[in-house]
UniProtKB/TrEMBL annotation:
It comes from Arachis hypogaea. GO terms for biological process: regulation of DNA-templated transcription. It comes from the Eukaryota. Signal peptide: none annotated. Keywords: Metal-binding, Nucleus, Zinc, Zinc-finger. One of its GO terms (molecular function) is zinc ion binding. This is Protein FAR1-RELATED SEQUENCE. Putative transcription activator involved in regulating light control of development. Residues 297-307 have a biased composition (Basic residues). Residues 272-309 are annotated as: Disordered. InterPro entries: FHY3/FAR1, Znf_PMZ, Znf_SWIM. It holds the Pfam family SWIM.
């Protein structure tokens, strides 16, 4: 059957897709079509067409998913840049006069600070009462009014020596935010600043994102020189670290030099504060470009020599030689066995002829 005459109907395609989802092999699917049609000649397609259709459908689904993932990454990168610019150039006003809220306002991003601010607003519905205190360790009972006549009670412990506060609701342990009950106790204790352990770095707007130094096809042209400088510094620093790790003296020299260089660079950065256009602190909404597709890069195709091809050839040649040797030994053994069996048969015929006794009426012997 010619290729232009082979065609899969809509019902056939739907059946193939359903069987593929159920894990049925293409050969079984084709055999079911043959059985339903009454023979191979009754079908206007072959088994290869079924396999090609499955491969083509899988490729189309993979391409769609890959394109969707690329678009999602681009959207998220664009949203991240816009939120960074908004975090550094706009300020959300505090809901209360608390210095702790101002501390979170200065450290956290807008999205996370809104969640913290909701806890400060909810602090107005809490009533704090001291139950026990000894050696700087206090136990409080915080009642939260959830309706006109219903109060939920929570036990909150505060250690003034270690500056630690812990609530029974475990909101900080689950979401990384101090709850309204803990904030109410801190206000009762007249604490002006919380411990740095309660300001998580992952929510900070000043966090250093290491993935921004890695070269990507989504990067703006403005970011390419920075990525190149980063790659050069990483390469040279690796060589320096390998050389300095040979002895303690070289390591100490590298540490001293590193401290001096860091101090010099920080001083220079302080003088040029606000001039660098590549840092997150100096990003603005005007510098953020519209969402664009990644640049099209022409590929070179499959390499002529794959990695490991030489080793595969050596293994294949050794296996082939081993099989050839085994087959030759088997052929020699079969030939020897056949010759031995033929010799035994010939000797048997000779012995039968020599030991044959003439019959009484055998006229050929003249008896």
């Amino acid at each position: 059957m010619l290729k232009q005459h082979r065609e899969l109907s809509m019902s056939i395609r739907r059946t193939i897709e359903n069987n593929e989802e159920d894990g049925i092999r293409p050969s079984k699917t084709y055999q079911s079509f043959v059985a339903a049609a009454g023979g191979h000649r009754e079908l206007n397609f072959i088994e290869k067409d079924v396999r090609n259709y499955i491969t083509r459908e899988e490729l189309e689904r993979f391409s769609a998913k890959f394109w969707s993932c690329g678009q999602q990454v681009a959207f998220r990168e664009q949203a991240e840049r816009e939120s960074d610019a908004a975090d550094f150039h706009t300020v959300i006003p505090c809901a209360t006069k608390s210095s702790i809220e101002a501390q979170f306002q200065d450290a956290y991003t807008h999205a996370k600070f809104r969640e913290v601010q909701a806890q400060f607003r909810g602090k107005a519905n809490c009533i704090t009462r001291l139950k026990n205190s000894a050696l700087g360790y206090s136990i409080y009972e915080v009642g939260e009014q959830v309706s006109r006549s219903i109060f939920n009670k929570f036990a909150v412990t505060y250690d003034s020596v270690a500056a630690e506060v812990k609530c029974q609701c475990l909101l900080f342990e689950s979401r990384g935010i101090l709850c309204r009950h803990a904030l109410s106790v801190l206000s009762f204790e007249q604490v002006s600043q919380v411990s740095p352990r309660y300001i998580l770095e992952r929510w900070s707007k000043k966090v250093k994102r290491r993935h921004t130094h890695i070269k990507s096809s989504h990067d703006e042209p403005l970011m390419e020189p920075r990525s190149k400088r980063f790659d050069q510094l990483v390469f040279r620093s690796q060589n320096i670290c390998e050389f300095a790790s040979e002895s303690e003296e070289l390591t100490a020299i590298l540490h001293r030099t590193y401290d001096n260089v860091m101090a010099e660079m920080e001083a220079l950065k302080a003088k040029r504060k606000g001039r660098s256009s590549l840092s997150h602190e100096d990003a603005n909404l005007e510098s953020v470009n519209e969402l664009q597709s990644p640049p099209r890069i022409r590929t070179r195709g499959r390499p002529k020599n794959r990695l490991g091809s030489k080793l595969e050839k050596q293994i294949a040649n050794a296996t082939k030689k081993k099989k050839t040797k085994i087959l030759s030994e088997i052929n020699v053994f079969d030939a020897a066995s056949a010759a031995h069996s033929n010799s035994n048969q010939y000797q048997g015929h000779v012995m039968n002829y020599q030991l044959r006794v003439p019959a009484a009426g055998d006229s050929s012997l003249g008896v």
